[in-house]
Design a protein that fits this description.
Blueprint (H helix, E strand, L loop, with lengths): L9 E2 L9 E3 L4 H7 L5 H17 L5 E4 L5 E8 L3 E10 L11 E10 L9 E8 L2 E6 L9 E5 L2 E2 L2 E2 L2 H11 L9 E5 L11 E2 L10 H12 L12 E6 L2 H14 L7 E6 L5 H10 L3 E4 L6 H7 L8 H14 L7 H8 L10
Parallel strand pairs: 2-6, 9-12, 9-14, 14-15, 15-16
Antiparallel strand pairs: 1-2, 3-4, 3-13, 4-5, 5-6, 7-8, 7-12, 10-11
Helix pairs in contact: 4-5, 5-6
C-alpha cells in the first residue's frame, strides 16, 4: 500500500490546544479495529491519543527510532484492558518537505495485549506430540518445513501458548487432523516494532519486525538443492493481523529483487485488504489466495476498504470514502470517521 503524503493527512481532532496532531486518513479501518470509539473504553483511548501526543510526543514515555530522530511510538491505555501502540513522526518548525507544518503525524496504530505467560516470539519448528504440539526454536532464519504459519492469538490471560496456538491455526484452516510438522512464526503485533529499531522507554522483551520475516523468506528462497534443506514448494498460511506484518515483509523482499516463486501465500481472515498482499506476492513471483472459509468482522471491515475489490460492499465503501475525503466540510479525521457511518464500524456494532 502506497504511503499517504503528509500534506494529505487530516487534523485528528479539530480546535484543540497544544501541538497539532495529524493522522493518515486511510487509517479509518485500523482505527475502528484498534480503538473503536463507539464504546466508553474506545472513546477514552481516542481522546488520550490527542492529549498525550499533544503534550508528551517526544517525552520519556515514548520510544524513539534508532537512526531517525523524528520517528516515535507511544503506548496509550492499560495493557490487559485496552491499549494501543501509536506510531508517528514529529516535525518541528522549519522542517523542509511537503507536509502541513510542525506537529505529530500518526501513520500506524497497533493493538496491544499482555504476555503474562511470557510466550516467546519468532520462528519455531512444531511437531505433533500426542494431543499437543512441541516447539523448537529455529535460529537459522530459514524454514525447516514446507509449511509456515504466521500469527498469534490472545485470550483473557494474554498471548496463548504455542501448542494451543498451533491447534487454533489448524482449526482456522480446516486442518484439525493434520499432524505434519510445520514452522510457526509467532508474530503478535502487540510486540511488533513496525519495521524500525527503537530505543524504548523501558526494558522490553524481544520484538518481531518485518525485516526478520523478510530475512526468513529470502534465506529460504536462496536454498539450493545442494543444501539438503530445501523443498520444491512452500505454503504460507497467514492468520488475522499477521497479514500486516506479511505485507511489510513482502515489500522488503520486493525491494531486494528476490524471487519467491516457490511460495504460495494463503490468507485466512486477513486484517489487511487482500489485494495489497496479492500484488506484492505477484511482484515477488509468488502466488496468493484468500481462504474462502469464515471471515471475521474485523477482516470484512478491511476487505470493504479494498479499492481493488469488485464486491458491492467494497465498491460502495471506497466510493463513500473518496467522496468524503474530497469534501471541504471534512475538517478532521473524526469528521471522516463519523461521515463513514456504519461502513467504518464493525458489523456487530454498526
Amino acid at each position: 500500500m502506497a504511503a499517504t503524503p503528509l500534506n494529505e493527512y487530516l487534523v485528528y481532532l479539530p480546535n484543540r490546544d497544544g501541538r497539532k496532531i495529524y493522522i493518515d486518513p486511510s487509517l479509518v479501518p485500523v482505527f475502528t479495529e484498534c480503538v473503536d470509539p463507539t464504546n466508553a473504553a474506545g472513546k477514552k483511548i481516542a481522546n488520550d491519543i490527542q492529549s498525550k501526543l499533544s503534550s508528551e510526543a517526544t517525552g520519556t514515555k515514548s520510544g524513539q527510532a534508532i537512526g531517525d530522530a523524528a520517528e516515535f511510538y507511544m503506548d496509550i491505555g492499560d495493557v490487559g484492558d485496552r491499549c494501543v501502540r501509536v506510531f508517528y513522526r514529529v516535525l518541528q518548525a522549519g522542517s523542509a518537505g511537503a507536509d502541513k507544518g510542525p506537529g505529530v503525524y500518526v501513520h500506524n496504530i497497533h493493538s496491544i495485549s499482555s504476555n503474562g505467560r511470557k510466550v516467546d516470539v519468532g520462528l519455531f519448528h512444531m511437531r505433533a506430540n500426542g494431543l499437543k504440539w512441541s516447539d523448537e526454536k529455529v535460529t537459522s532464519q530459514e524454514l525447516t518445513a514446507k509449511v509456515l504459519r504466521l500469527g498469534s492469538v490472545v485470550d483473557e490471560g494474554g498471548l496463548i501458548e504455542l501448542s494451543d496456538l498451533s491447534k487454533e491455526m489448524l482449526k482456522a484452516s480446516a486442518q484439525e487432523s493434520d499432524k505434519t510438522d510445520f514452522n510457526l512464526y509467532h508474530c503478535p503485533l502487540t510486540i511488533s516494532n513496525d519495521g524500525n529499531d527503537y530505543a524504548t522507554p523501558e526494558a522490553r522483551h524481544r520484538v518481531v519486525s518485518p525485516s526478520d520475516l523478510a530475512d526468513v523468506l529470502v534465506n529460504t528462497a536462496s536454498l539450493g538443492e545442494w543444501s539438503g534443506r530445501h523443498y520444491e514448494s512452500y505454503t504460507v498460511y497467514c492468520y488475522n493481523d499477521a497479514s500486516k506484518l506479511l505485507e511489510s515483509a513482502l515489500a522488503l523482499v520486493k525491494s531486494k529483487n528476490v524471487s519467491l516463486e516457490k511460495f504460495k501465500f494463503s490468507l485466512v481472515s486477513p486484517y489487511s485488504p487482500f489485494s495489497f498482499i496479492k500484488k506484492l506476492a505477484d511482484d515477488c513471483g509468488a502466488t496468493a489466495n484468500l481462504e474462502s472459509g469464515d471471515i471475521s468482522n474485523v477482516s470484512q471491515l478491511h476487505q470493504n476498504f479494498d479499492p481493488a475489490s469488485l464486491s458491492q460492499d467494497a465498491m460502495s465503501t471506497c466510493q463513500n470514502y473518496s467522496d468524503l475525503v474530497a469534501k471541504d466540510s471534512i475538517n478532521s479525521f473524526f469528521d471522516l470517521w463519523k461521515g463513514m457511518g456504519s461502513k467504518a464500524q464493525l458489523p456487530s456494532l454498526g
